[in-house]
Each structure stands twice: as C-alpha cells, then as structure tokens.
C-alpha cells in the first residue's frame, strides 16, 4: 500500500502569486514528506512575473513535480492517483467558474474535478474584489459541492506588522485544512 502523502497545488491568474510561493516554501521546509504537484495556468504565469518578478521555472523549483496544464493525461487527472487533495492558490473567478460547472478543459480544472468526485479536500483561495453575484453563486455552488472557500482575507486580531505576515498566516491556514498543522498563531480568547 502506497502511503506517500501528495498534495496538488494549482495556481491560477488571480492576484496573490506571493501566496503560492509562500505555500510551496512552507511545504518544502516544514512538510518535506509531502510530495507537491504544481500546476500553473497561463494567467498564473503572468501574475507570477508581474507580482513576484519570477519565472515559472523558479516556482517549479519549489515543487516536487511540475505538470503541464495542457497535459490532461497526467497522473493527477485520475482518481486512482491518491492525494491529500488540492489547494487552488490563488483561485481566479474564471477557474472557480470552470470547477463549478465541471468544464474540465485543462489539467488544473480536471484535478479539481477529481477531488470533488472522489470526495477529497479541495481548498480554493478565491480572490476577487468586489465579488459579483455570478462569482458568489459559483462559490456557493462549490461550497455545496464540498469545496472549502478560503479567500486570502486579512485578520487584524493577530496584529500583523507586514504584508509578509499576512501571506505567511494565510498559507498556514490553507495547509491546516489538510491536517498540515504548524506551531502557528492561535486565538486564546478574550477576557470577559
Ligand atoms: C495582474 C493581474 C491580476 C489579476 N487579478 C485577478 C483577481 O484577483 N481575480 C480574478 O478572478 N482575476 C484576476 N485577473 C484576471 C485573470 O487572470 C483572467 O480572468 C484569466 O483569464 C484567468 O484565467 P485562469 O483562471 O485560467 O488563470 C488578473 C489578471 C492580471 C493580469
């Protein structure tokens, strides 16, 4: 029986490329036992360059395996390839619409579709502002279908000092959804 832990990380073309970098960095440093499978859309390649000044190969260097998003014959396109699930970080509204409708015309969409049909964890770091009724309807449908909608939102109660603090904390929250817990910030409650 193969006990290998695998996590699929899909990156689409919403703002938030530093979040994908931080997520892969945390996985590599703190969870080296997890084999990471990275996918990037064309939109993601644009935001990676624009927001981080990085080429796709540099992000790929942080992952165990990088897949061609057009290769719908890859292992992660099949439910028989066992994984912990998939995090789409960040998740654009176009990619959210594709997953919500089951229109799996690229590997990222197919891998997410597989997670839903196999009842595996699918976490969507959905990012757009403001959100239209169409976006909200798609996110609602995805939540109903079992996905976890985890928008990269600020939490002021942890007193973040920098954007990097916020990015780190959001990446921790995403990993915690897969049981990949770290000694991170924990709310201790308010005195009554
Ligand atoms: C710099 C930049 C930032 C963007 N930010 C967002 C965003 O936050 N949310 C979103 O839904 N789309 C955003 N877009 C638009 C998407 O990239 C576009 O809709 C694209 O077709 C998404 O395709 P994909 O989901 O296959 O990556 C952005 C585009 C660029 C160039």
Short recap of the structure:
The chain has 192 residues and is α/β, with parallel strands linked by helices.
3D architecture notes:
There is one protein chain. The chain is an alpha/beta fold. The chain has one domain: 3-Layer(aba) Sandwich (Rossmann fold). The protein has helices at 17-30, 42-52, 56-60, 93-101, 107-117, 133-144, 163-176, and strands at 5-11, 34-40, 65-67, 85-91, 121-126, 148-149. A 6-stranded parallel β-sheet has the order 3-2-1-4-5-6, with helices on both faces. Helix 1 (17-30) packs across helix 7 and helix 4 crosses helix 6. The longest helix has 14 residues, at 17-30. The radius of gyration is 16 Å and the shape is globular. The mean pLDDT is 95. The site of flavin mononucleotide has 16 residues, from helix 2 and helix 4.
Element layout with pairings:
Blueprint: E1 5-11, H1 17-30, E2 34-40, H2 42-52, H3 56-60, E3 65-67, E4 85-91, H4 93-101, H5 107-117, E5 121-126, H6 133-144, E6 148-149, H7 163-176
Parallel strand pairs: 1-2, 1-4, 2-3, 4-5, 5-6
**Number of DSSP strand runs:** 6
Q: Into which percentage range does the β-strand content fall?
A: 15-25%
Q: Could you name the CATH class? A: Alpha Beta
CA-based shape: globular
User: Into how many domains do the coordinates divide?
Assistant: 1
Low-confidence stretches: none
Order of helices and strands: EHEHHEEHHEHEH
* N/C terminus separation: 51 Å
User: What's the main sheet like?
Assistant: 6 strands, parallel
Mean pLDDT over the full residue set: 95
Q: Provide the CATH topology.
A: Rossmann fold
Q: In which order are the strands of the major sheet placed?
A: 3-2-1-4-5-6
**CATH architecture assignment name:** 3-Layer(aba) Sandwich
Helix-strand category: alpha/beta
Please give the count of helices.
Answer: 7
User: What is the helix fraction of residues, given as a range?
Assistant: 25-40%
CATH superfamily: Flavin prenyltransferase-like
